[in-house]
Amino acid sequence: MCLLTEKVNEELLAAAPKLRIAANVAVGYDNITVVDCTKRGVAATNTPGVLDETTADFAWTLLMAVARRLAKVRRWRVPGSGKAGPGSTGGRRCLGQDAGAGWSWAHRPRGGAPCQRLSDEK
After folding, report:
1. How far apart are CA 122 and CA 116, in angstroms?
2. pLDDT value at position 52?
3. Ranges 53-57, 76-80, 108-112, 118-122, most confident
4. Which burial class, exposed, middle or buried, applies to 94 when counting CB atoms under 10 A from its CB (0-12, 13-18, 19+)?
5. Pairwise CA distance, residues 59 & 65, whole Å
6. Angstrom distances, CA of residue 92 to CA of 68, 88, 89, 95, 120
7. Which pLDDT does position 69 carry in this prediction?
8. For residue range 4-59, what is the model confidence (pLDDT) as tens digits?
9. Please, which residues bridge with residue 45 across strands?
10. What is the pLDDT of residues 64-91, one digit of tens each?
C-alpha cells in the first residue's frame, strides 16, 4: 500500500522483487510508473472517486464561508478588531442561487437529494 507521496518506480521495484501489487491510496497514480510495474508483473491500483464526497463538502463549506463573509464577521466579533454597522454581517443570500458544478457538489443543499436550483419554494 502506498500514498501519493511515495514513488513506485524501477528503483523501488528492483528493491522489492516479490512485490505483486502497488495499491495506491489516492485518486490518481502519477507516483506510479505503470510501465515499470507492467514489465515486472506488478498490478497497480488506485482509488478513483474516494474523495468526491469530501471535496463536495469542502466546496460547500467554502461557498458558504465566502458568501456569508465569515472571515470578516469573525474579525468583527473579536473584541477591538472592528465596528459593527449595517451590512457588516450576513453577506450574500445563498437561497435561490444556482448550484450546478458536479454531481456530488450539487447534492449537498438538500441533504443528498439532487437539485438544480436552491429555492424556498415548497
Report:
1. 15
2. 79
3. 53-57
4. middle
5. 10
6. 6, 11, 9, 9, 15
7. 75
8. 899 999 999 999 999 999 999 888 889 999 999 999 999 999 988 877 788 888 88
9. 23
10. 788 777 777 666 655 655 555 545 555 6
59: enclosing H helix or E strand: helix 52-67
Residue type, 3: L
Rounded CA separation 122/118 (Å)? 11
Nearest to 108 by CA among 69, 61, 70, 65: 61
Length of the chain, in residues: 122
30: three-class secondary structure by DSSP: coil
Q: How many CA atoms lie within 13 A of 103 on its CB side?
A: 3
Strands 21-23 and 43-45: parallel
- Other Cβ atoms within 10 Å of 109 Cβ, number: 19
